[in-house]
Design brief:
This protein has about 750 residues and is mainly alpha-helical. It folds into three domains: about 1-45 and about 415-465 and about 530-730, Collagenase (Catalytic Domain); about 60-110 and about 390-415 and about 470-510, no CATH class; about 155-250 and about 270-365, no CATH class. About 50% of the residues lie in helices and about 5% in strands. It has 31 helices and eleven strands. It has a four-stranded mixed sheet with strand order 2-3-5-4. A hairpin with a 6-residue loop joins β6 (about 340) and β7. α5 packs antiparallel against α18.
Length: about 750
């Protein structure tokens, strides 16, 4: 704390300079972060703050988890093996990228790049083929083939995704809203690589070169062997299939008067994603199939296969374009799954089923050789393109695909505590906020009761919602079984990356589809990662969320003195509670219903205070002589800051009053001037949450759009200017810059 302070500055003149004045001289710009995502024309994004430094620490912790076996271990063999799977996934990724880049010996040859990519796709296809071979019998339907491809995690022409709102309702055990919310979004990938018109198709480089790569025999056995599993499909046959599908997607002749009718009550806003139940989709498919003299696609069977459990036929599904989807699945359904080989005893995938496999593989564009990867198609991918030496990409894939395992590893290594003291801190902040509300004359008695009820009803989620070891192991049992069967050695890790990636991708898809079926032990942090340095207010749910990653120094530590924790994580807690009463939150009651939950008199007084904040922050400039700050877009966070710091200060007052007469003084931090009171230290700690280093032209770039947060130094200024307790703690005379005569105060 002391090292960042500029004690030569007057806190009553410029509190940010006093609390953070030495920060720029102590911090250097990170060249990797500065250049990430920036074009040369725009220049590097020169910006560092406490949050980015904390995120750096988080990334270093995760990196050590992945490269050092000793950092996280478990006496439970199954969990230990899952930890090992996660580490080997990352390491095999790094080795694969290393080989791709030439292994440190210059640019690799085209043949080496091709062989490296081929090893990835071979692993992915080995895993897929094992599944597909189990389907090789005459009874298998096209619904099963589509469901199998979808649940292996790729992104084919038919996309099925989990709506966040449904996951929310599962997490909240909200049975009523579960019945009103779509549990899946089904769509056609209209940017799919080939559907650009028949003439262009003939010269389409994506189609020709990617198919050639997957079927060529230069590397030995072809990846897609059209003489074995996937039958006798070929480029001309695929071209005919593509043209037929394109024509089918655009065929609306079967709908309308005298034809098949989309249920009328859902007909409004179809293109924005109308909702239909599974039975209605079955009926519409049956109508279209009957008109064409074919067999209808069974949505019931498709979802039963996808979710591995009988789907409720009244369950809702969201379709942005229902006609397009129905046309596609019925067209595919009208084709056979298998075709007889020359050996009449063997069944091979038909041309259409083989095309679905090929289409599915194209979502792995990031892993094609660089010359093919650069053929931009706008196609949906399962992973972002590889950057640099692969550290960032491999860590991102690990954090995304294996998030629940990595969370447990992180908690095991770095967060053994149960965060019960943070729970107590939340209770204290709530009590302080309620006491502040009760002391306000501008709020009517009935409104005070309503505000207090909302504060007390706020649910808090802290750290992580760790499912039991038994549930965790049961969820990953299929992944673990397949992982143990993989022949892994240090010498072949790069060649096994495709296999491990496929296992991780399946586990990730399995997580989402289990949520759809409502069978998964779902927690909030399956939707919001606890490995993020941030905090949230889920206003519609009246829920405040503090992920594990922010519960670390400098924001929090169990051994910090109470006033230091109150100045950092306490201020954050108060800020998130404050969002429940910002320009949006004050219009939502404790159940999430939209509408004022207090009376008109209180509302009018609140709007006066809200306008005070807008005007005060709107008078600030980004830097001396710079543009005026755009306070309209940051209003919600500015209000939350003011409410938050007052709650933190009020909590310190409550704490001190409870300790009076007990001889229990608040401990002091070393290396701080003895003259600094606990109140002063609280404000300094809060201000230092926003210490930053940047350049004027960078602030122009960051804050001249529609920012959601005020610039860091203006957040500190706004908090100080609008807190009577700040002026009292630092003995600032009335009229000083940090103690203006008029303050924007809520409670």
């Amino acid at each position: 704390m002391a090292s960042y302070m500029n004690t030569s500055a007057d806190p009553c003149e410029d509190f940010y300079n006093y609390a953070c004045g030495n920060f720029p001289s102590m911090v250097r710009y990170d060249p990797v972060r500065a250049s990430a995502g920036m074009s040369f024309k725009d220049g590097d994004l020169l910006f560092e703050d406490r949050m980015s430094l904390m995120s750096d620490g988080l990334e270093r912790n995760i990196y050590e988890l992945l490269v050092l076996d000793r950092v996280a271990s478990s006496p439970d063999q199954d969990i230990s093996d899952l930890f090992n799977f996660t580490r080997l996934f990352y390491r095999s990724c790094r080795q694969w990228v290393h080989t791709r880049s030439g292994g440190g010996f210059g640019q690799p040859s085209a043949s080496l790049n091709a062989a490296n990519s081929a090893s990835f796709f071979a692993g992915v296809l080995d895993h897929l083929n094992e599944t597909l071979w189990t389907l090789c019998n005459e009874e298998v339907a096209m619904e099963t083939v589509l469901a199998t491809l979808v649940k292996t995690g790729g992104s084919g022409m038919l996309g099925v995704t989990l709506p966040r709102q449904f996951a929310t309702n599962v997490i909240e055990n909200d049975d009523f809203n579960l019945t009103q919310t779509a549990r899946a979004v089904v769509s056609i990938d209209r940017l799919s690589l080939f559907l650009r018109g028949s003439a262009e198709l003939e010269r389409n480089a994506f189609f020709r070169e990617w198919l050639d790569f997957l079927t060529e025999r230069k590397l030995g056995a072809p990846l897609l062997d059209f003489g074995s599993l996937v039958g006798n499909a070929s480029r001309p046959r695929f071209q005919r299939i593509i043209k037929r599908i394109e024509k089918s997607l655009n065929d609306n002749s079967l709908y309308g008067p005298g034809g098949c009718t989309v249920p009328e009550r859902y007909s409004f806003g179809l293109d924005s994603g109308a909702k239909y139940n599974v039975s209605e989709l079955d009926e519409l498919s049956a109508c279209v199939a009957a008109a064409k003299g074919g067999v209808p696609f069974s949505w019931s069977r498709f979802f039963d296969e996808l979710l591995q459990s009988p789907v409720d036929r009244s369950a809702l599904v969201q379709l942005p374009n229902i006609k397009e989807v129905i046309n596609f699945v019925n067209d595919i359904k009208s084709r056979p799954v298998f075709a007889k080989s020359n050996d009449s005893s063997a069944s091979l995938l038909s041309d259409d089923a083989a095309f679905l496999v090929f289409d599915w593989l194209l979502s792995f564009r990031s892993f094609f050789p660089p010359d093919l990867q650069n053929l931009k198609s706008g196609r949906t991918q399962v992973a972002r393109d590889i950057e640099g030496d692969g550290v960032a990409s491999c860590m991102l894939w690990t954090k995304t695909l294996l998030q629940p395992i990595l969370e447990r590893m992180y908690q095991t290594a770095y967060h053994q505590q149960d965060f019960s003291d943070v729970n107590e801190l939340v209770k204290l902040i709530k009590e302080a906020a309620i006491a502040g509300v009760r002391g306000q004359s501008w709020i009517t008695p009935s409104a005070k009761v309503a505000i207090e009820k909302k504060i007390r009803a706020a649910k808090e989620t802290i750290g992580l919602d760790k499912i039991s070891a038994a549930e965790f192991k049961a969820f990953y049992a299929p992944t673990l079984e397949e992982f143990r069967a993989v022949d892994l050695r240090p010498s072949n890790l790069d060649r096994k990356f495709g296999t491990l990636f496929s296992l991780a991708l399946c586990a990730y898809a399995h997580k989402n589809f289990d949520v759809m079926s409502s069978l998964s032990p779902v927690t909030l942090f399956m939707e919001i990662s606890p490995l993020v340095v941030n905090a949230f207010n889920w206003i519609e749910r009246n829920q405040i969320i503090f992920p594990m990653a922010i519960l670390a120094p400098p924001y929090y530590h169990p051994s910090y003195p109470p006033h230091i924790n109150l100045g950092s994580i306490g201020y954050v807690i108060g800020h998130e509670i404050g969002h429940s009463f910002d320009n949006t939150g004050h219009q939502i009651d404790q159940q999430g219903a939209i509408g004022h939950f207090w009376d008109n008199e209180t509302e009018a007084n609140y709007l006066d205070r809200m306008e005070c904040v807008r005007s005060r922050y709107g008078d600030y400039r980004l830097y001396p002589g710079g543009p005026v700050h755009l306070s309209n877009s940051t209003l919600g966070n500015d209000i939350a800051d003011i409410i938050g710091i007052q709650a933190a200060v009020g909590a310190l007052k409550l704490l001190k009053s409870r300790r009076q007469g007990r001889g229990r003084l608040l401990p002091r931090l070393p290396n701080l001037p003895a003259s600094l009171s606990p109140e002063q230290q609280l404000f300094i700690q809060a201000a230092q949450s926003w210490c930053f280093k940047s350049e004027s032209h960078i602030l122009d770039r960051i804050y001249q759009g529609w920012p959601s947060h005020s610039p860091h130094h203006l957040r500190v200024r706004g908090v100080a200017e609008n807190s009577p307790e700040f002026a009292e703690a630092f003995k600032c005379r009335r009229g000083k810059p940090m103690n203006p005569a008029k303050k924007c105060i809520f409670w």
